[in-house]
Amino acid sequence: MDFSKWVLLLLIPCLFIPRSCLCSSKPGLTPEELARIPVEFLNLAQKPEIVDYMVGIRRRIHEYPELGFEEFETSKLVRSELDRMGIQYKHPLAVTGVVGYIGTGKPPFVAIRADMDALEMEESVEWEHKSKVPGKMHACGHDGHVAMLLGAAKLLQGRLDELQGTVVLVFQPAEEGGGGAKKMIDDGALENVDAIFGLHLSVKFPIGAVATRPGPILAACGFFEAVISGKGGHAAIPQHTIDPVVAASNVIISLQHLISREADPLDSQVVTVAKIEGGGAFNVIPDSVTIGGTFRVFSMDGLIQLKQRIEEVIMRQASVQRCNATVSFSVKPFYPPTANDKALHEHFKNIARDMLGPDKILGMEPLMGSEDFSFYTEVIPGYFYYVGMKDESLGKMESGHSPHYRLNEDSLSYGAALHASLATRYILENQQKSDAAKESSHDEL
Ligand SMILES: [Zn+2]
Ligand SMILES: [Zn+2]
Fold first, then answer.
1. Any binding-site annotation on 200?
2. Which of 78, 79, 111, 433 has the fewest C-beta atoms under 10 angstroms from its C-beta?
3. How far is the centre of ligand 2, averaged over its atoms, from the C-alpha of 218 (Å)?
């Protein structure tokens, strides 16, 4: 082994341990000291230098939105900010993903996550930092999510001496239908990680409030596309054709019966045909019609069952009208349901109560929307919550995926402080638990 390799070997363990972290373990904190942490993080996150930092990052990303698995510039920006903060990271995971590590490099490991991708749509909001990329827009707030995770990294760097464990910063690609989370897991993003927290900005809830629930919060989701083929011809001579338009119409109606006649009315499910393409003239019956849509349910078993019935209904109903059909489910990956871990719900409530007050923790019903955060919660305990941005003084704010979507930048401090507090307290409390367990095992001896 030559000299350079020896130097490298000696350096590798040091790379994992940030400079200011080489401190002795702090003795256990009192409940009062623990309760102060979220308040202090929020105070810090609302300081002009941190707010300006996050707003600046968010606006830079907003101007240059990138679609799933193409977040090359966003990823580069994330890495250069982590470099600047002296935070070690792994890259690439899932093409553009980045995983940063703050702390000792030792357990407990707790992850906080942001998604980085934009949507394929045109921005209709006229403002200084409008998207400069035609046909692409950050209309789901993921630009804000990245800014908040970087903001949280800054907050955590300021309290490294308390981190007797490791915070894992997960910057993932392709949440919007691409299943980036699944690829991040396949590439090792959750190695050693004990728990993961994720958030989403929402205009439905007021600024300064959070909304969440234990158990199922978002549905499992699948997509389908079908081509129904007949025989085209003159619209005035239907007897010489096999009309796929009428067949497709019957298919669409029959698909609705899967929910109204086959699903348990108390088990929420959705089948929506959102796409229909066929023909281009008033007087021509086309050869084929393409339909496509989505189906949602709160269990993977339910999703598989619906998939099977959707295929059967399309094939058989098409054949009633003498048409053939092909059905494809591979247009986008299936997402599992997102279920919040019950113990992490208690952890979240404690932190949100200490930071925002009990009246700012809003309950919510499960939503039929989906999130690829669900892939994480399939593997380890996970927790997903909404951070409010509604502010009457800003006028009506459109919800996500609208070309008129606006992000209330005042919400960024709350998200960053929640990220940092959830992770810090998780490490502290689990450290204290394991210390207590060690002590009690000594007692037994
Ligand atoms: Zn979205
Ligand atoms: Zn989103």
1. yes
2. 433
3. 12
What is the set of domains in the chain, with CATH numbers? 16-218+337-441 (3.40.630.10), 234-328 (3.30.70.360)
- The pLDDT assigned to 440 comes to 60
Distance 41 CA to ligand 2 centre (A): 25
CA distances from 428 to 27, 217, 240, 416, 432 (A): 10, 27, 76, 18, 6
Interval 82-92: pLDDT, tens: 999 999 999 99
| Ligand with smallest separation from the Cα of 146 | 2
Q: Binding site annotation covers 419?
A: no
Q: Are strands 233-234 and 338-340 parallel, antiparallel or unpaired?
A: unpaired
Render pLDDT for 292-301 as a digit per residue (tens, 0 to 9).
999 999 999 9
Q: For residue range 225-257, list pLDDT tens digits in order.
A: 999 999 999 999 999 999 999 999 999 999 999
Mean pLDDT in residue range 112-116: 98
Q: How far is the CA of 175 from the centre of ligand 2 (A)?
A: 7
Q: Which residues contact 294 (CB under 8 A, 6 or more apart)?
A: 221, 222, 223, 224, 270, 271, 272, 274
Say if residue 91 carries a ligand binding annotation. no
21 assigned ligand-binding residue: no
Amino acid at 278: G
Strand-pair category, 97-103 with 166-172: antiparallel
The ligand minimizing its distance to the Cα of 137 is 1
Q: Which residue has the higher pLDDT, 284 or 9?
A: 284
Q: Is the CB of residue 172 less than 8 Å from the CB of residue 184?
A: yes
